Amino acid sequence: MESGHSYMEVDSMHSTIESAKKNVPVYTMQDWLTICRLARSNRHNKKCSNYTVQELKYTDFLDLKSLANIIMKNRSFDIKGNKVNWLKIKVLKYEKNMSGVIQFKYNYSDKEFNIIRISGKGRPTKFPDHLKNLYDKPLPISALKKNDLMKLCKTQAIPEEFHEWYKKKNTWPLLARGRRYITIDFELAIHSVVNEIWPLSKSVGCRFHLTQAWYRNIQQHGLVIEYKTNSDIGKLIKYTFGLLYLDPEEVSDCFVEDLMPECPIDERVTKYCDYLVNNYIFEDSIFPPCLWACNLASILLTTKSFHSFFNDHFYSNSPFILNFVQTDTYIKINSVKIPKTSKDANIIGKFTIKNK
User: Fold this and answer.
1) Entry's PANTHER family (predicted)?
2) What is the Cα gyration radius of the chain?
């Protein structure tokens, strides 16, 4: 597929529906269903019929992302060990009698297909008996959006017969308005609470607390001296901290295929690596890579970036209430343009101190 040159037959359907929607008031989802059904008619072409519309409920959506994480252990390398460049693939091929295999070509003229074995080098992954639902309840809307809808009801911009439907719409919990990512520590209790209260937000593990936990394990196994040297053990330990800056799907492959073959024979190192495997390296670990690995260097991936700024604004055990208001206002203003690097953050911090 060439970027910018793709075409799908459904595009013409979208255009037809968009034309049918013009000058038609829409108040509920039922109105949209009617518009979609009647967008095409046999008025101009006797062979045409109305579109068949299948209404989907929230229970109809399945969590295919979690399924992909289970069955696709490898998507980075082909069977020859070459890195797969997905953006340059022109042809994909799947065969029923070749389960667990993706065939691809970079050029249409290539005679043979390259092969990706999605199970990696281990045993083929067993498919789950049932697919999980993506949602366990209807999706809520933001409190701000509902407030705007209520104003439209009050001014009768929305007819009165639809008011009850809008009043029954669920909203996000107050603290989750617009919150897509939440940076939290590596404690199971915190994760379970966040997932329960903000089910559609993505939890991001704090890098500071992650490296702190790893370093404590290094101390526990008596590897601090080796860590501070340039020995084989010291190099391996330092390389493990580099896993934080990989894409999540690359972490397990890098650990198994790149780091483990170079692992020195030492009982302490083995215990440290076992600790990483059991807790962090694979998708079925307690804290999988999708929680903490990110190909990005940013202070926004730590909770300390907020803690340090907040603490700098209080100098006594009983701070004046306006300190809270001023600090909260600063955070809201600067969340509009989030600093991309630690250097940017330092500049903002210095600027704020000068203007106090």
Assistant:
1) DNA-DIRECTED RNA POLYMERASES I, II, AND III SUBUNIT RPABC2, PTHR10773:SF19
2) 27
